[in-house]
Structures are given as C-alpha cells and as structure tokens.
Amino acid sequence: MATIEVKYFGLIAEKLGRESESMRIELSENLELKRFFENRYSALQGMPFQVAVNQEIRDMIGADEDINEIALLPPFAGG
Amino acid sequence: MDEIGPEGQAMLKKAKVLVIGAGGLGCPVLQYLTAAGIGTIGMADHDVVDVSNLQRQVLYGYSSVGKLKIEEAKKKLEDLNPHVQLNLHPTGIQVENALELISPYDIIVDCTDNFGTRYLINDACILMKKPFVYGAIHKFEGQVSVFNFKGGPSYRCLYPKQPKEGLVANCAEIGVIGILPGIVGSFQANEVLKMILEKPGVLSGKLLVYHSLHNSFHHYKIEGKEHPVFENGKLKDDYHIPCGTAIESFEAADLDSLSDHYEQLIDVREIHEEPKFDNWINIPLSELEARFTEIDPQKNTLVICRSGKRSEQAITWLNGKGFDKLTNLKGGIKNLIQTDEELF
Asked: Which domains does chain A have, with CATH numbers?
C-alpha cells in the first residue's frame, strides 16, 4: 500500500466535493487508474477525464513505481 | 525590448493568425495580438453579442448587443492598431469550410466554447499541419496548451475521444468568473507571440492547469500518440457543432396567425401527438434526419412542437444542414390551445 496525494479538477472536484485527498492505493502491475477511480467513486462513471501520474498524462502504472501524485483531469468546454 | 527588436517586430508583421471564437477567450487574444502588431489576424465567429456576454467579453458594450461579434470587435481593434489586416469569417468554422478557412494562416488559436468545434479544429490542424493554441475554462479553472506544434502532441493525445454532448456544460450554462477567460486568453496570446518570435518554452507537450481561487499552476506532460486516420485526407462528419447563432422565434397570438406569417409550417411532434392540422407538415424530431429533405429550404418556415424545445433542437440541427429560413414557435402550441388540455 502506498499513500498517494490525489488531485481533482473541474467537474470532478465538484462531483466529489473535494479538490484533493490522501489515498492509500494497492499498486499492482498494470493497474488501470481510470477504472480504479471509476470503481471507487460511482459519480465518475461515464464522465470524461484523463489521469496524470507524477505530472504525466498516462493511465497505467507499474507495481514498483514510486508515485507521489495522481491527478484526475476532466476536459473543459468553456471559452 | 532587446529580445524582440526590429527583427522580431518584422516577424510579427509577417505572421498570419486565425482566432476561432470571439468570446471570453477570443477578446483578450484579439486585443493583445492586435496591439502586438501581428500582420494579419483572422476572426471566425458566427455569434452575436448578448447582454450576458459583457461580464467577460470585454471588447463589447451595450451598443454591441445583437450585433455580430467579429464586426464589433473589428471596430475596436482597428482603432487599437490600424496597421493590422483584419479578416472576418462570419460563418465561423464548420466541417465544410474548416480546411479552407485555416489554410492561409500560420497559427490557429482555439477560443471556442464547445467540444465539437475543439475536435474539429484539432483534426483540421492535423490535416493542414498547423499548430494551434488551446485554451478552455471551467468556472474558476483554466487549461492551456499548444498542440500540433512541430510534430508535438495534439488535443486527441490528451483527450482521444470527443465527450458525448450534455456530459460537460458550457460557460453560458454553468457560468464562469469573468476575469478567468482574460487570464487564460492572455496565456494563449503569449504562446502565439513565443511561437512567432521563435522563443523557447512553447507550451507544447504540456498541459497547463490554472486555478484562479488558489492561484495555482500545474503542468502535466502529454505524450504524443499516433494521429487518427482520416480517410482520403477528409475530416470526419460527426463533430456535432452547435449552431451558436440565436434562433429566431415567433410569439403567436393564435393558431390562425401562424399560416398568415409563414409559408411552411413544420410540426416536429411525434405521430401520436394531437391535435394535428391539415396545412402543417408533420416530421417528428425522431425522423428528422431521414426526412429533412421534405422541407423546402427556400420558404419562410415556422417550426412547431408542444413547448418550443424540440422545435429549437430541430432548428439547430437543420441550420447545420444549411437551412436558414427557420423560426421557432416560442412556447410551442400548448400556449395557443390552453382550453383543451385533454388533447395533450
């Protein structure tokens, strides 16, 4: 188990009612983070968003990776 | 400034930049690019100024309300810098004109307010090998990036698939703090100048996320992925570009007045909805895509449903098919036949 800072943006922060939280995550080889968060929070199901790991947009992580931060980034439409 | 000098000023003068969307983001982008002395600036937007825009679209005032945004913008910008060539593209960007529209320009600036247009700009820029500066806002937060710059990632590398409509609301629906597009648009203009002046640090391969409440900046690295395949070098046709222009509406006093004012009456209620009228053409909204050719585009047409909502949807869709003589019956027919409620 690793304790990871998770950041939420835009509509996701609104839906979850928080902009960040510390989360203990069981990291396993090829864990799909988008699916992991959708399972954890049903409010995220069907919502478009992208995951960033250690400030890099990507969905998969390795088991032995040192992860400090995950961010959930929904697209913004406004202009 | 030494870092720019006469040589830099000449580079700006030579540059051609297309700004798509003359709203919250477009206003500061247009102002700063004009002030900087960009040689040619194109403005593409088909929208008119609404009083609710004034809180964030600072090129416009009360005297602009109801007028075409880019024409109003041109008046201000010409005064700001008369040496800039300002091209107006009042059709905005559509699938049909996208490639031709962006072709003469070096850099495209995405200041739009909906996903359909953002994906269309992205794909058109990939096909035409043009870089584009992306900016988008949500309430207190903004995103900025430069896509398709010197083979760098595109918007689809960040968000591969266009979200379904209705999943993410736009500014007009959810609101946005008025200063935010000013800040985000200024970042976009800054990237444009960096690209023209060949300065380092262009925001390519990175997403900048700004939060105006915390004054926080985050950068996220974007990996390039393979571009989507465009058959025969053509754009897709499923971007679902919203119409944007205000839909004209007609407030009727009674049923008889409808045929007095309009040559063609299109009823988009479903088959089972009563009452039906002889001189109305019933094309249910659910069948519109299959049957829209039954509508004569040359005739002044009133589109009708029960409450005025579905008829508005129908008009938006038909506008995308080139119909431009459509008016919505405001409030639908339920207001005109209140006495016989059981009919509905």
From this structure: 2-73 (3.10.20.30)
